[in-house]
């Protein structure tokens, strides 16, 4: 395992065009499982390729355990990358595909066979070593590609959209395998995804990328409860916004003064407030309570979704159907925004 530090990392393919990765700074601690999350085309895969040594660095540095590796060839970095398409050798068997890297390292046949057998057991394909790639399902191909990467015992594992080409059932299986691999091998792992749910379920930490820039990096919970901008909040889960100005009394908004400890020492500052739908209470409280029109009420099994209207705002509210009787569609009701749930973005 190693620490990975990206220091002002930049990639520009053509000087006449904008950089695809722009002054990115982040550290992945040894043994972490980190998601590079963002929309398609934001530079995520390019970042992986610079870490792997498959793309040159235009500016900045990639460091492994504090040592700059910009000019170290890919084959000397102890890094493996599993691509979105498994890229198995079609003329080789499953066992030969898995053992290819060991053969290139001139290990003995007995050691290669032993390690390949271990990998086949790990990916639950024991007894399928003699099959060719055309005889495998998409999920099996991804498993073989992962085994081929792990068999050489790398220090860093890079996964490019590992679940994107799989159906729901196979995604669950592959997700469990990645977690097992990370737990058993304790390898520093970075994976690329555009799927927020995938990032939440797999990662220790998330790096959110837009247009080649890092917008937030940290624990999954911070993205949900403490987003650093409106854009981050909007990308990571459902949310409600309202503009306000901080004062000594609280935060002045179009619906009155809302109380929040975050307004302290920000007198006169214009702010955007965010609250998640499930943090709003459909009841009258002691503070931050507003009378709203229930425009829509939908029973969704485990929760009830309200669409409420106040002062030309339409907000979503999620409530447990077992908690309280609730309000009827077309009626007015009180909704409370707990002060500790209001966040300034």
What does the model show?
This protein is α+β, with helices and mostly antiparallel strands and 345 residues long. The chain has helices spanning 44-52, 94-104, 109-122, 138-150, 168-185, 196-202, 220-225, 230-235; strands at 4-11, 21-28, 33-37, 59-64, 67-68, 79-82, 156-160, 188-193, 205-210, 213-219, 240-246, 251-253, 256-258, 270-275, 289-299, 304-310, 313-319, 332-336, 343-344. The strands form four sheets. It has a six-stranded mixed beta sheet, with helices on both faces. Strands 13-12-11-14-19 form a five-stranded antiparallel beta sheet, with no helix packed on it. A four-stranded antiparallel beta sheet has the order 2-1-4-5, with helices on one face. Strand 9 and strand 10 (213-219) form a beta hairpin. Helix 2 packs parallel to helix 4 and helix 3 (109-122) crosses helix 4 (138-150). The chain is elongated and about 75 Å long. It comes from Oceanispirochaeta crateris. Keywords: ATP-binding, Cell membrane, Ion transport, Iron, Iron transport, Membrane, Nucleotide-binding, Transport. Residues 4-236 form the ABC transporter domain.
Poorly predicted parts: none
CATH hierarchy class name of the largest domain: Alpha Beta
So, the CATH homologous superfamily of the largest domain? P-loop containing nucleotide triphosphate hydrolases
Please give the number of β-strands. Answer: 19
Succession of helices and strands: EEEHEEEHHHEHEHEEHHEEEEEEEEE
- Continuous helix count: 8
Query: How much helix, percentage-wise, in residues?
Result: 10-25%
Biggest sheet, in brief?
6 strands, mixed
| CATH architecture annotation name of the largest domain | 3-Layer(aba) Sandwich
